[in-house]
Amino acid sequence: MGFRYEARQYKLSFEDSELDGLEVISNPVTLSEYNAVSGDESLAKLFASKLVSWNLEDKDGPVPATYEALEKQDITLVRTLLEHWFRELTGATSPLPRNSSDSQRSVEESLAMGASSLSQPN
User: Fold this and answer.
1) CA 42 to CA 111: how far, in whole Å?
2) Sequence-ordered list of residues with C-beta below 8 angstroms from that of 12, at least 6 positions apart, any chain
3) Domain residue limits, the chain
4) Low-confidence ranges of the chain (pLDDT < 70)
5) From CA 91, how far away is CA 44, in angstroms rounded?
6) Whether the Cβ atoms of residue 64 and residue 85 lie closer than 8 Å to each other
7) Cα torsion at 98, 99, 103, 109 (round to 10°)?
8) What's the pLDDT at 51?
9) Can you give the pTM of this predicted structure?
10) 67: Cβ–Cβ under 8 A, 6 or more apart, which residues?
11) How far is CA 8 from CA 5, 12, 53, 93, in A?
């Protein structure tokens, strides 16, 4: 009898942040889907396609868990969602330094962000 792997859903945690209380559940991603990501738009589309549920609301009530609804959200919120989701999928606790010899993409590279975009101005 062989081993059967059961992929799990991911629950994103936003405790101790400005998004504390937001609950996001997503389905797993295949290697093929991961490798097809080429920038912000494709990552956001992949995220939306894997989005099972969230408790996000706006002034009109619950926001649907769709790409179309995601497109209408503030970019800061979307980037934060994508960063948390990517870290949950990859098991990374923080992005790798730019000079790391690891061949995996960092969160910044996958989101097409420069290193300075995560830093606070001096």
Assistant:
1) 9
2) 22, 23, 24, 25, 26, 81, 84, 85, 88
3) 20-93
4) 93-122
5) 19
6) no
7) 10
8) 97
9) 0.71
10) 44, 45, 48, 49
11) 9, 13, 14, 19
